[in-house]
Every structure is written in structure tokens, then in C-alpha cells.
Amino acid sequence: MIGxxxxxxxTRFADSKTGREITKLTSAxxxxxxxxxxxxxxxxDKEIYFLSxxxxxxxxVYNLCKMDLDTGRITLLTDEKTGINTQTxxxxxxxxxxxxxxxxxxxxxxxxxxETIYEGAGDFVLGHPFISPDKKHVGTVFxxxxxxxxxxxxxxxxxxxxxxxxxxxxxxxxxxxxxxxVFEDTHQxxxxxxxxxxxxxxxxxxxxxxxLVHQRIWILDLATGKPIPCFRQGEDDxxxxxxWTRDGYIFFDNRRKGHDGTITSDKTQATIATPAxxxxxxxxxxxxxxxxxxxxxxxxPHYCNHYHANNDNTLLVGDDVEDLVLVDISGDKAKLSVxxxxxxxxxxxxxxxxxxxxxxxxxxxxxxDINDCCHVYCVDV
Length: 381
Fold this sequence. Notes:
This protein has 381 residues and is an all-beta fold. It has 1 helix and 31 strands. It has a domain of 167 residues: 7 Propeller (Methylamine Dehydrogenase, Chain H). A hairpin with a 3-residue loop joins strand 26 and strand 27.
């Protein structure tokens, strides 16, 4: 089925709250885009890569596709009968790496060649991969398999935090010649990401409910295997959704005391009605440098679930409970405005909006299951 093409499914409509034109990119099957740290857009913003239940339309069995944004034409890139677990790509989309079972596979998008570059995690679960800037390695985490499934509405989230006592950061050679474990920890690990311009610098996180993790973000020297904490947390800090900005800083979201970092389909976890419900507990976002030192913070009137930054870190997009919001952080105070209504259910990770700026920062891609299956949408900023 690899190479199968689907005609354009693009439709357009006016947003119910702002009147902005929304482009619905998919209308058939179940679809969601890559995680915002990977960015579904190809440099130049003429195409996107995404996950879909094509060609078999079996719930939970996703394969990789690409879409030409000018024509809307969709091309199926993989044919994994059991579905893809997790995936990443290079900014230019020349290489995709994805996990199936106990294997990481590499897809050369120019030739269509797929090859296994790693197999056999033993008693460990394969984590989300990330490709180095020079395209020579895939970085990832392996967590011991504690046989606790992460289900819908974050079931198993806290249980795995306490059960997992061993996590490993590993580098896998892109040519399939082997792998090297760089760092071993006594915690569940996640969110491995290379710095955008340094093959020897990365970050990872201690994964779990934010209010239970003592130190979320770690910066790792891959040559020495030595980690340093990024933004040293205090007792009342609840930190997460870290990512490298395009100019090489580390963004983080601090929701303050007691927040577990989740939103579920009951939609009770994502926002507070009034800011600073307790003295000194104003949520804020921040930037840290490569030494882990915080260089700037800005208070937020309430927290969104995920953020993504434009090219110069003056504008954020966030997914509020019901809407996407633009957050102007160019001044001393954050200024929020509604971009559009997303209306997603939040029932499982695939339905999380994960809004993502295009490479030129003119468009935002997001996912939602409003009204029907999960689909991919695009809106101009």
C-alpha cells in the first residue's frame, strides 16, 4: 500500500468565535499531526507529515502520510500492519524515524527506502526518538517495562512514575551500526530533544505528574554523559512541556503549586478561573539558557495545555480548554487573544491540539476531534 494516493480532502469554514478562515486538511479516517517538538511542516511550509489510520481504518493503527498543502493530495508512506507507536523527522523531512514494536525504522523520503536501525529493547520500552542536527544519530530514552499501560485520560500516568526505577538515554547510529547508552537514571525518562544546532547537547525530562516530579528538565552533555538541572525547581513548582526554541533557548511552563500537568475529557485540569488563587502561585512561562539558568519569565493570567513559539519568541500559541489563543509576550505583560475555537474532547493524546507554528510562523497546525474523528486543521496567524 506504500505510495497509495488520496485526493484532496480540504474544506474551509469560518471559525464560530473569531470568523477566521479555518482550513480542515483531512476529512476521512482518523488523523493527527506530529508532536510540536518535531514539527509536521517541512522547511518551506509546502507540505506536512502526519499520522492516519489509512489505509486499513483500524482504530489505533496509524501510518505515516504526507500532504501537499497546495493540492491537498495525500501520499501513504508506510504500511505497518500493527501501527506506528511514535515517530520523528528532520526539519527538511528528508528522514523519518519511527517505532514499531521493539524496532526503530528509518524512512528515506527521497527513495522511499525503509530499514531497521535498532531492534531489541529487552525489558525496556522504546521512547520518542529525536534526530541529531547532523542526521547521524537518533537520540531516545528506554524505560524499564513495568507493564502499566498509559491509557486514555492519563490512566497509569502516576502509577508508572512510581513503578519505573530505571531509564536510559541512548544514541542510535542512523546507519544501523549500533547504539551507545549515554546516561542511566533511577527515574522514568521522556522528551529527549537535541539542541537545534549542537549534536552533543540535548535535554530530557523526568516524566510523571508535574507536581510529583522533583526536577523535570535536565540538560545532558552527550560527550560526557553528565546532566545538569535546567531551572532548579522548588516545592511549589509544577513544570513541563519543555522545548528548544528555534534560537536555542529552552522554553518551559510552570503552572505552580499542585498542578499535575494533565487535561482530561472532564476539562477540569487546564485553567483556573482567577489568577493567583493563592499568594505567590501565579503561573508563568520562562526561557532558560544552555547552562540551565533562567533568563526571562512572564506571568500568565491562566495556563494553557501546550505552547509553541514563533521564530523570535515574541508570540506563543496555546491550547486553552476550548480555544486556541495567541499570547503576545513581546512586552512586559502577556496579552492573550482568541485565535479560534478548537472544541476537542481531550480524550487521549491523539486528540490533544498540540498547536504548532509553521517554519515561517505564518500558520498554525492543530488537531481536534470536534464533531467526528480526529482531524488536522490549519489557520493563518
